[in-house]
Design a protein that fits this description.
single chain, alpha+beta, 3-stranded antiparallel β-sheet, 13 helices, 12 strands, globular, binds 5-S-methyl-5-thio-alpha-D-ribofuranose, binds magnesium ion
């Protein structure tokens, strides 16, 4: 499984030519732009014509910690997920041009004219165009792949193509379990020691998290991206809404319809832009209702689940393995995020709408 060529900048163009992608000359420039935790990504560009592609390879471990094995077959799942995402959101995902199962390599659109939203947030640049696009993406996907949008035969076929136990297990461990325990993967700002100890000893939070894990495992409602944080969103420097792209769906699975919104909301919380929760929810609801007619209580159940997953995403970005760079060295902000995350997880059933949510959280202290 690990016995396959691992690309380097010097070998990527030869890989493209071996796959019949011959319009990029040997003189193309190749730059490694790996940014996420798991995979390597190269940009190949023909400076003469200004065209290019991105080449993404899954290695049999995670990029940021090579003693942590992870099956490279995740690349095949990602390609299958892109196919489904493109059916429902063709305007919001990059196109896949090639997949090589022998080297777990995906060739896709070059998005280098865009910027990763996480970096924009860290630099203090706001992108108010993103919230409605993310809400639209999630609403179309949830409606189009949920039980109201697909018949049972189509749902069964979808379920087979997005079986993703290894990466779901990673989310279950790294996002939904380990941050609530003493675990070697966790770290936090020492200024938060007392707060973190209190969270890990909090019986209400422990009970709520057992429930949230149950929802994550058992609520196979619709296809979800599975990791829709601000590092999976690209934006145009000028804020053009039509340029927003959502990528990296290797964590996709048939899961709770509120999962993706929740992960995105967790990142709204770490960025201190709580208003984007309301904007994305409105866009979600509009997109959802434009496709299906939900029975009473259906949307409010998605809202409530999304609050829980928002809390878990925000919490892990403060006290888990993979932190929000925008909170680095800002313990007061990080403490507000962790307290807000707890509120969203534990009290979600009594927060029926955005007004109740903001009343419970208060203003971010920055
Ligand atoms: C081991 S790090 C795990 C995280 O990295 C990915 O980007 C996902 O966010 C996952 O939770
Ligand atoms: Mg990723």
């Amino acid at each position: 499984m690990s016995d396959y060529p691992h690309h380097e900048a010097s070998t990527v163009v030869a890989h493209l030519h071996s796959r019949g992608i011959s319009d990029l000359p040997s003189s193309s420039t190749v730059k490694e732009v790996s940014d996420g935790n798991l995979n390597r990504v190269f940009l190949v560009q023909d400076p003469a014509r200004g065209t290019g592609v991105a080449v993404k390879q899954a290695l049999p471990w995670i990029r940021v910690q090579q003693d942590w094995p992870l099956g490279p077959e995740r690349a095949a799942l990602e390609v299958a997920a892109y196919r489904h995402l493109a059916e429902h959101n063709p305007d919001l995902v990059p196109a896949v041009h090639d997949y090589d199962p022998a080297t777990y390599t995906i060739v896709m659109d070059d998005l280098s004219a865009l910027r990763v939203l996480r970096g924009e947030t860290v630099a203090g640049r706001r992108h108010p165009e993103v919230a409605a696009q993310v809400g639209r993406f999630c609403g179309r996907l949830a409606a189009g792949t949920g039980p109201l949008g697909l018949d049972l035969a189509a749902r069964s076929r979808l379920a087979v193509t997005v079986q993703n136990p290894e990466l779901c297990q990673m989310t279950l461990d790294v996002v939904l379990t380990e941050p609530y325990l003493e675990h070697e993967h966790n770290h936090h700002d020492p200024a938060l020691d007392d707060l973190v100890a209190g969270l890990r000893a909090d019986p209400s939070l422990a009970r709520a998290m057992a429930d949230v894990r149950h929802i994550f495992i058992t609520h196979s409602e619709s296809l979800v991206h599975g990791d829709l944080h601000s590092g999976s969103i690209m934006v145009a420097p000028d804020g053009d809404p039509a340029a927003v792209r959502i990528f990296d769906p290797e964590f996709a699975f048939l899961g709770p319809s509120g999962f993706d919104l929740g992960v995105y909301w967790g990142n709204c919380l770490t960025a201190g832009i709580v208003g984007d929760i309301a904007v994305s929810w409105d866009a979600f609801e509009t997109a959802y209702r434009s496709k299906v007619d939900p029975p009473a209580g259906h949307l409010s159940a998605i809202w409530t689940d999304a609050l829980a997953f928002a809390g878990t995403e925000a919490m892990r970005r403060v006290i888990g393995y993979s932190h929000a760079r925008e909170l680095a060295g800002r313990p007061e902000a990080a403490a507000w995020v962790a307290r807000s995350a707890r509120t969203m997880i534990v009290e979600r059933a009594s927060l029926p709408d955005f007004a109740a949510l903001t009343a419970a959280l208060g203003e971010p202290p920055w």
